Hints:
Blueprint: E1 7-12, H1 19-30, E2 34-36, H2 55-60, E3 63-64, H3 77-92, E4 97-101, H4 105-112, H5 123-136, H6 138-148, H7 150-153, H8 161-174, E5 192-198, H9 202-219, H10 221-227, H11 242-249, H12 255-278, E6 283-286, H13 288-298
Parallel strand pairs: 1-4, 1-5, 2-3, 2-4, 5-6
Helix pairs in contact: 1-13, 3-4, 5-6, 5-8, 6-8, 9-12, 10-11, 11-12
Amino acid sequence: MDTREKxxxxxxxxxxxxxxxxxxxLAEALGAEIISADSRQVFREIxxxxxxxxxxxxxxxxxxxVGHKSITEYYSAAEFEADVLRLLPTLFAxxxxxxxxxxxxxxVDAVCKGIDLMPTISPEVRDKVLRQYGECGIECIIAQxxxxxxxxxxxxxxxxxxxxxHALEICLQAGVPYTSLRTGQVKPRPFRIVKYGLDMxxxxxxxxxxxxxxxxxxxxxxxxxxxxxxxxxxxSLNTVGxxxxxxxxxxxxxxxxxxxxxxxxxxxxxxxxxxWYRKDPTMTWLHPTCALPAILGSL
Length: 299
């Protein structure tokens, strides 16, 4: 199929800004389906903590890559890129548009720009890195990266444990520094890509985040975290919401502190998302309240 006249519309932005609602309204208006670009919404056991689209929202528009993996399964940006590129011709067979919505920066970039070919991580290497992380913490991982790939340590966010773990996995699996495999070249795509970032006044965004955390707890976040407590070592649960709830359950902090820590860490993550997306010159920024007519008017 010639998909050069087809369009992938990307709805990005910080967590809590209203991406899901905008994407659903846009997809309904265009007769399109939605691709979720969220690295945690792929896991079926944790829909509350990941703010996954509800059953009612998914009934309005078909969503792809929501709840299609277990937290015990490995899933990466590279796999997401391959899965989306396989799916898009099917979506474009029935519509001129597909909508990709999500805040996972690497997932969005994987589809829009492509990511460098990396070795498949063996279960043995993954278990080794996770065991080291569990036994001596992130400091052990950083110390190994200092020996194997000091250049990467100079550019990576040292608070992003997921990236540090992945970098060490690549170094051990490939036998070369992770940075030596990163070309940064943009891969051509056989379809048009348009990107829209949603944002709002910071105080309003932070208030939405705080209220959403309260709503998650009321909806059953505690029960969801308790059901996954014994698996808290998994990388899929190394995420805001579950880290704090599990720390409370382990006696490391009280419940009120855990709840407020979730809010704070979510706000920090939102700022990191905005910093990342603001560097993209192809992103058009809109306020959620005027996004739908602006996007439809520009297509």
